[in-house]
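Morning!

As promised:
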Amino acid sequence: MITFSALRQLTKFTPTISRNYTSATLQLLQLSITNQSLTQTLQSHARVCYLGLTQHSVIVTKLISAYSLCKNPLAARLVFDSVRVKNVFIWNTLINGYAKNGLCSESFELFREMCRNGDDPDNFTISTMAKVCGDVEDGLLGDLVHGVCVKNGFGVDIVVGNAFIFMYCKCGRFRDAFEVFDEMPERNVSSWNVMIGGVSGLGGDGVSEVVWEFVRCMVVEGFGFDGFTISSLLPFCGRSNGKCDFGRELHSYIVKNDGGFFVESDFYLGCCLIDMYGKSKRVNVGRNVFNCMRDRNIFAWTAMISGYVQNGDFDEAMFLFGEMQSKGRIEPNKVSLISIIPACSSLGGLLGGKQVHGFAVRKELNHEVSLCNALIDMYSKCGSLNYARKVFDFHCISKDAISWSSMISGYGLHGKGSDAVLLYNKMLQSGIKPDFITVVGVLSACGRSEMVEEGLDIYKHINEYGLEPTLEICACIVDMLGRSGQLDKALDFIKTMPLEPGPSIWGSLVNASVLHGNSDMLDLAYKFLIQVEPANPSNYVSLSNLYASSRNWDAVAEVRAKMKERGLKKLPGCSWISVNNETHSFYVADKAHHCSDLIYQMLQELIPVMMGASNSTILEDLALSYLEQA
DNA sequence: TTAGGGTTAG
């Protein structure tokens, strides 16, 4: 353990004899920097003092750098203060050391001190300060630093230019970032990477197109990709559409260019690839990447676990979660826990989720807002609204928009529309701005509880929070009006809504028409649904069934012919359940299961019970008697 | 001797 009184003594130490061991000391310091080892840094520091090198500019610079990299900025400052004559290297190293340790205001204060002291900043100082302004998203300070940069003619430096592009992007001033990029006399791969990263951060529709356009221009200008480029691009590689598979192509690019950055030894690229394959429903390819990694950190394990969860393979996710701790000797962090919660609750129900919650309490992670949000969601979905509310009220100390949205959606799921609206209003009173997910949550809650007036009133005011209607929000309104039986009003809303109605809109009208037995409206809604979603066989089958129920066989034949003509085939629906680590799957009218007779016999008895009785103990008794027979 | 981009979740 480092003590500051000991460090102070070291910095004051002046030996009587100075020996020419500078080179060996520099090597030792370089080793401390490479290993980021505090022990080695302290040993080097002791040697520096013993040899009387405490005023040696190069050695002191390295020492400040070493302490900063060992996350010890206070020790770095002590060394800095002990230097009588400070040059620009020494100033820059501590300014950068503060920045690396997240001490942005200290970094800026030191920059001011440097200027007051009459020491001129150079291109290294400016690039660090631009980065600091970006980190704290302070565009005004950024402008000030940019002014100093232009005045001193540092604008031609590529690293400085890249740092200002980063700063302007982080401050949301993409136009200014592009202006810096456009006017750079010379660019490197990083300049393109920073621009691509900046565009990615913009969010919203069309970002992907802009990113790929930047990539095209980058290639036209003769630049290749490095690891940073690829890791920025992988999140934009969705599932292959049959024509191009950018994710696979980038993976090949990595393998071909293995001299520069090989996935086996690069955590970042490995994690990005696993994530990309998981999100594009190719979790097994992701697993191959994971298996090829020479070493795996918590990010790699979590990315792999998350891939399995996203693809519904909860058993494998749970297995890997155990392996991470036993084989990998890695303790789960909050992201690992958040990732595994859906698997736990799916396999173990409320008990599985509670086990994760208990682990989080033991590790003192239970007040982390993101973990609380996942727990609120899990408890709501597992049927325990009371536990969800307890987490929301007592564990979730600093609530964000997702915390409120999760709780509001939970009330909606349980048909408690008035509680959802009450909480939505409380959220607004707390000054938290709703996002479109909050609005979807509260509107669907209104729909389930037939609170049409309240829902329409909420919809009317969303623009006050900078929100525009989305297709999801509009679908909630159609669903809400439709469920309450106001089918004509729902159709009028569709006709006047500000967006082109898509499958979710017509699907909502279909459901409402079925609910209220309005076959004319159902016919119309299905026709529009098929028009906007012509490749979904389910729509044709449902419409055909509708005609069949009214014995309109000509119409049935017409729909079936259209399906055949378009080459559409409906895959049979499948459901499954895991009992004692064995998964049992069932298709429609499936009789392949060895307990099939018992299952159908029970179903015959369950149907009238479900339709007539609300007493759950009757159902439980019935189920238990059949389990004993099976 | 000092400077720059990328990783998992809700």
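Strands of chain A lie at 574-579, 582-587.

Hope this helps with the figure draft.
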